[in-house]
TrEMBL record:
GO terms for molecular function: pyridoxal phosphate binding; transaminase activity. InterPro entries: Aminotransferase_I/II_large, NHTrfase_class1_PyrdxlP-BS, PyrdxlP-dep_Trfase, PyrdxlP-dep_Trfase_major. Its EC number is 2.6.1.-. The lineage of its organism: Bacteria, Bacillati, Actinomycetota, Actinomycetes, Micrococcales. CDD domains: AAT_like (cd00609). This is Aminotransferase. Pfam families: Aminotran_1_2 (PF00155).
Length: 388
């Protein structure tokens, strides 16, 4: 056999995504394609992003572009931002700078779990959790979200936990549904995880996947489970709020509520493990830019207008939708319950959506709101007619 078992399982678990990408060639070749698939930029880069990078481009020392681990100035800027956002006493040593949220999630798995351990993931949820777990010799176990409003179902998570469970992954604001979960949910989950940890005789960790944390609508607040459950690590990516996913910058943060000895152990292990998994640090230029980038964001007012325009029009056309409280996605049920057929028919008209099959939800679809308002207006007639 040519491939490792890990490679086969990773490939197979993300086959729906890679097949979808291969089928998107028609959109790539069509300059008039109306693309609502991935959260990619459709307009020039944010001036604040370009300015921050430009300001750090000219070397200031001979080692300006030398090997970098986690740069102290970047860690301090992140810790300060987290203290302000979450009201928790993060310190710079709690922060490991990573290659986006991908790198932070990979680091969390490597730090906390051993081969064969189970990791509970939300369904529907990000389609890269399972393949990343397979590649790390870990076992993904799905826990369904509530079927109607896609809230976090703590009972389903409790049901998914076994004696082999090591990590539970949560995502708020959630991809693909746009839901933002309140502190009451985290308090309930903390009790379940604490009880299960005692029952099975091993600590269950929580990985809070928060790359959309700063993208929320209608004044909705944000609570992190790091404030409810000490055994929490938080991953973050700047690629969402900057709408620059190709610039790999993120971090993994340790909850400051964690018991001091365990907190120190994680702090001291982060850099060695990042070296071991392939120098998992952001490039020098991106780390130098962090203090300036902490204050840069996509236009949330404009994003809100896009959400309201798309949501209002499709709701009026009879679609069943989950109104996003955060992220830049709109999640809906496909007419007739067959998302693949629905998205395929729209693709023939030059409108490209993401079918829910990529999220193990074959009756649903996802729309990325990073498209321009002009693109939205051009696509709405076809979308409205598709549910006529």
């Amino acid at each position: 056999m040519v491939l490792s078992r890990r490679a086969v399982e990773s490939r197979d678990s993300i086959r729906s995504v890679t097949s979808f990408l291969a089928g998107m060639q028609a959109a790539a070749d069509d300059p008039d394609a109306l693309d609502f698939t991935f959260g990619n930029p459709h307009e020039p880069a944010l001036p604040g992003l370009v300015d921050a990078m430009r300001a750090q481009l000219e070397p200031r020392s001979v080692d300006w572009f030398a090997y970098k681990t986690s740069e102290r100035e970047a860690q301090e800027a992140v810790a300060e931002g987290l203290r302000g956002e979450l009201g928790l006493d993060f310190e710079h040593d709690d922060i490991a700078m990573t290659q986006g949220a991908f790198g932070a999630i990979q680091l969390a798995f490597a730090l906390l779990a051993d081969a064969g351990d189970e990791v509970v993931i939300p369904v529907p949820g990000w389609f890269c959790y399972a393949p990343m777990l397979h590649a790390a010799d870990l076992v993904p176990v799905g826990a369904p979200l509530a079927p109607v409003d896609f809230s976090l179902d703590v009972t389903e998570i409790e049901r998914a936990i076994t004696s082999r469970t090591r990590i539970v992954v949560v995502n708020s604001p959630a991809n693909p549904t746009g839901r933002v979960y309140p502190k009451e949910t985290w308090d309930a989950l903390a009790q379940v995880l604490d009880d299960a940890s005692r029952r099975h005789g091993r600590r269950i960790w929580l990985l809070s996947d928060e790359p959309y944390r700063r993208i929320r609508f209608d004044g909705i607040g944000f609570a992190s489970p790091a404030g409810s459950y000490p055994w929490t690590v938080v991953d973050y990516s700047y690629g969402k709020v900057l709408l620059a996913p190709g610039q790999r910058l993120g971090y993994l943060a340790i909850s400051p509520l964690l018991e001091p000895a365990e907190r120190t152990t994680l702090r001291e292990a982060a850099t060695p493990v990042q070296l071991a998994i392939g120098w998992g640090f952001p490039d020098a230029l991106m780390q130098y830019s962090v203090p300036a980038l902490e204050g840069v964001s996509i236009d949330l007012a404009e994003l809100t207008r896009k959400r309201d325009r798309m949501y209002g029009s499709l709701q009026s056309a009879g679609y069943t939708l989950t109104k996003p409280e955060g992220t830049f996605y709109l999640w809906g049920r496909a007419p007739g319950g067959d998302a693949a057929a629905f998205c395929g028919a729209l693709a023939e008209r030059g409108v490209y959506l993401m079918p829910g099959t990529l999220f193990d939800q074959p009756a649903h679809f996802r729309i990325s709101l990073t498209a321009t308002m002009e693109t939205i207006e051009r696509a709405l007639p076809a979308l409205e007619e598709a549910n006529a």
